Amino acid sequence: MPTEPTDTKAETKTEKSAPRGLEGIVATTSSICWIDGDAGVLSYRGIDIHELAAHSTFEETTFLLWFGHLPTEVELKDFRQKLADARALDWRVVEFLKQIPPRSNPMEVLRTAVSLMGISDPDDSDSSHAANIRKSFRLTSQIAMVVATFDRLRRKLPIVEPDRSLSHAGNFLWMLTGEKPIHEAERAFDVALILHADHELNASTFAARVIAATLSDVHSAITGAIGALKGPLHGGANEAVAKLLTEIEAGHADPVEHVRGMLARKEKVSGFGHRVYKTEDPRATHLRRMSKDLSTAAGNTKWYDMSEAIEQFVRGEKKLNANVDFYSASTYTTLGIPTDLFTPIFAVSRISGWAAHVMEQHENNRLIRPRADYTGPAYPAPYIPVQDR
Ligand SMILES: CC(=O)SCCNC(=O)CCNC(=O)[C@H](O)C(C)(C)COP(=O)(O)OP(=O)(O)OC[C@H]1O[C@@H](n2cnc3c(N)ncnc32)[C@H](O)[C@@H]1OP(=O)(O)O
Ligand SMILES: O=C([O-])CC(=O)C(=O)O
């Protein structure tokens, strides 16, 4: 006996909606990263990002994120060694990189390569903490190698074998360019990796934690995280900034007038705004300076000058601050890195934070499964046979 459809949705209501986009919702506890968005403070395990950018290395910062304290000299040496020892891509991953079309999107290539790495990982079926650490070493070493190797192959250049004596930053630049990086470039890249390493419950890290919380494996969580990072509202914004700068230059446009037009058309300007920071993103402070210093040293401040003009205008007009993605675009361009590698390079760094969060999730796990505030047809809606529709 069919029941009469109700004319009210009251019965079908489940829960009251959280704010759109979960703004301001505290979804988990975590001891990895603390942000004060009003004061513009970012810290990893309580240590201010400015201290880490000034004194640390990517290896040391990754140790800090994974193990919760700064390493002793012996611990750091051991950590570096393990990261360097993991610089070996499985032949199936290399074959995949050789066989895909050179025009493939590098973020899609990376996402697929990480998924493939999961199949060939020696600890594949082991989700113990020790195995997760070993997987995290391999992923951190090899994501950088995948990005560099794919770029070499698509440019029809020979693959550069890793140099285990180099730092993580130095080895990436070496495998990408086939040249040993000068100290300034290696240090700038190392600092960029430190700045991008973690950022609390950003979209890709949240995605990774949701996947990890089903007790799925590290590679599945990181594959999902890469998919989330790719979007232009998140990590993909650094490429969008570079495209904007290139478009302005190609059209011989005035940067301020170009952006004024975008705002008038209600378009978003990539590299500005942030869900958490209501003041300057502390990472942008470093990237702005790096962009300026590197471009001055290179004798071409074109991209920096354009970026600075846009930043001043957007801040004045919309009260929006530059985020981490804005000046990373001109910094990486000045380092000679192809635009479509900017977001993969974000992943080269963020794997350290993702891994820390996946391990933290597994250590104190509960399934993440919120509710939706249902807005569809009232229950019970009638099922109308196909001939009567
Ligand atoms: C690593 C990272 O993920 S950092 C962020 C990278 N993403 C970007 O740079 C993309 C551009 N920025 C944005 O889209 C947003 O600022 C986000 C996604 C970063 C944050 O989004 P939210 O907190 O959801 O803010 P939301 O998108 O609702 O914007 C609030 C208001 O500010 C405006 N606004 C926010 N960012 C921008 C922007 N970059 N350009 C123009 N207007 C903007 C919105 O249009 C909106 O205005 P309205 O209230 O008049 O409609
Ligand atoms: O925290 C966020 O929402 C985005 C961000 O800045 C990051 O992931 O680095």
UniProtKB/TrEMBL annotation:
| InterPro entries per the UniProt record, alphabetical | 2-MeCitrate/Citrate_synth_II (IPR011278), Citrate_synth-like_lrg_a-sub (IPR016142), Citrate_synth-like_sm_a-sub (IPR016143), Citrate_synthase (IPR002020), Citrate_synthase_AS (IPR019810), Citrate_synthase_bac-typ (IPR024176), Citrate_synthase_sf (IPR036969)
State the pathway, as annotated in the record: Carbohydrate metabolism; tricarboxylic acid cycle; isocitrate from oxaloacetate: step 1/2
Region spans: Disordered? 1-21
Record's catalysed reaction(s): oxaloacetate + acetyl-CoA + H2O = citrate + CoA + H(+)
What keyword terms does UniProt attach to this protein? Transferase, Tricarboxylic acid cycle
Pfam families, per database record = Citrate_synt
Q: Residue ranges under compositional bias (Basic and acidic residues)?
A: 1-18
Kindly indicate where the leader peptide sits in this chain.
Answer: none
Q: Which Gene3D superfamilies match?
A: Citrate Synthase, domain 1 (1.10.580.10), Cytochrome P450-Terp, domain 2 (1.10.230.10)
Q: Which domain of life is it from?
A: Bacteria
Q: Which family does it belong to?
A: Belongs to the citrate synthase family.
Q: Which PANTHER family match?
A: CITRATE SYNTHASE, CITRATE SYNTHASE, PEROXISOMAL
Name of this chain's protein: Citrate synthase
